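Convert to structure. Protein one:
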Amino acid sequence: MGIREDHNRFRDIVRGRIRQNFKKYISHGEMIGKREKDFVKIPIPSIDTPRFKYGPKQMGGVGQGQGQPGDGVDSDGEGAGKAGNSSGEHLLEVDITFEELADILGEELQLPRINPKGNRAVDSLVTKYTGRAPVGPESLRHFKASYKEALKRHISSGTYQAENPIIVPIRRDFRYRTFRRTTKPHANAVVIYMMDVSGSMGDEQKEIVRLESFWINTWLKRNYKGLDTRFIIHDAAAKEVDEKTFFSTSESGGTLISSAYKLCKKIIEQDYPLSDWNIYPFHFSDGDNWSGEDTRLCIKMLQEFFLPNVNMFGYGQVESKYGSGQFLKDLEKGLPDEQKLTLSKIESRDKIMQSIKEFLGKGR
């Protein structure tokens, strides 16, 4: 029990360190790209456990040796090297699950849990194996961990023989897998990201979208058992692409936002029955559109198809010195009281955290 308590205490310390630096992680993306299956590697300042340090024997102690009170302390020789102005702190990479990451995100932004719609919104119990313990049922005995404990005991007691390496575990060597049961929503959801890739959307604008979409996905995965992700890019025409292409493509020319909305509608109608799926379209742009007529067509599609059928529709306007920002103003004017339409102005990386709260803070 002591080991498990120490491990839980360590995890609490790690969570505290992550929370202290969470805004930095969101805006600079240290952990994105370090995903391994269900874990994310996060760099945090190293955590040292306080301990006593003993010096060599027969070297005297405090107040011992020659000299009188008030004498100065002499130093033999001079130090080498130049003074520095940077911290000597080292970084430690810790593994954290998406669920823990999403919980920290929810706590920091005070996000409400989502109430999924549709007949798939049924909770199910999920068993997660979380560690090792010296007691447990025989069916959960971890043979590799038990063998390691036995090997350590033989080596420490001096009975290990390299030429005859027979290791016999005894009762105190046995290790068992520990688990916890959590309730996980059974509903399915799809997130459809649309992005303007015309020439006015530069690398910095795309990076803001990349960071924000990562954190949106992290939160939605916490609320849904199954999460599909689709990507659409557009300038004057729209096409579906993979994730890598979505964040690296740059085009030039005009912008017809309705082309992306039409393709998004087609994907939903073909692949995601409205009664079974929770649907989250997100559109990112710098706010330029080819014409007022196309903007009116977009508003009509939002009114007639998207808003009656999706959980929410998010429009994020990324600040660009080349973009007019007119599309957000037109949406505010044309759809002033639509609860499912969430508008967010993302002026810089520092506004990503606020934008995520605007998108996900309603719990839809």
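Protein two, convert as well:
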Amino acid sequence: MSQLTTHVLDTSKGHPAEGISVFLYQQHNDKWTEITIATTNHDGRIPNLLSSDVVLQPGNYKLKFETKEYFDRQGIHSFYPFVEITFTITEKEHYHVPLLLNPFGYSTYRGS
């Protein structure tokens, strides 16, 4: 399993959000460097964001979720064109960063 995983739940429907592009960035001083991109599966998850042998170094990271495209495909107007979640990696343990999403709001937490 990847050291970093994520999933997206569409709380307005009570279902996983399939087909959302998610970018992973690492911060270097004042710049963000793209590491990878993936798309949520039918269960709203990205279990393989990184190869299982990749270990993220301690530092600041960001997941960018392309939410507008997801809602546009459904003909739903949304307020946020994308959602960025920044977080800090401190150890070589597993990190799970979920996104709870609806057209006019979102929340996140550190999952397990």
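The beta strands are 4-10, 15-16, 21-28, 31-39, 45-46, 59-65, 83-89, 95-96, 99-102, 105-108. The chain has a mean pLDDT of 96.
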